[in-house]
């Protein structure tokens, strides 16, 4: 009987993920672009009702939401981000274009990704 040599199972590094809670569509599109450029990260979306589950499942390095969404339950969102060691990034979406949102998000997502990667 031959025994195959076993090799250690390689554990892939978690991929970089950003979760966007709520919308609007321009914010989601801007996060997809900024996260891709700043951190080669994929973006998952969540609604208010399933935000805790999505964040716990994907363990993102950043959670992005509009100021309006944040104000709905600020303390809960702060705790959720802290639980998974994610940066909580809030952006003002009123009258903001997608391009303006991308410019605002890119450095913040890059910084959050570097913080998570180095620590």
Structural class: alpha/beta
Low-confidence stretches: 10-14
* Morphology: globular
Number of helices: 5
Question: What is the residue-mean pLDDT, rounded to a whole number?
Answer: 90
Q: Strands of the biggest beta sheet: in what spatial order?
A: 2-1-3-4
**What are the secondary-structure elements, in order, as H or E?**
EHEHEHHEH
Taking Cα atoms only, what radius of gyration do you get, to the nearest Å? 17 Å
| Strand coverage percent | 15-25%
Overall number of strands: 4
Helix % is: 40-55%
Q: How many strands, what sense, and barrel or not for the largest sheet?
A: 4 strands, parallel
Q: Could you give the distance between the termini? A: 46 Å
Question: How would you describe the overall organization of this protein?
Answer:
With 119 residues, this protein is of the alpha/beta class. The termini are far apart.
Condensed summary:
The chain is of the alpha/beta class and 119 residues long.
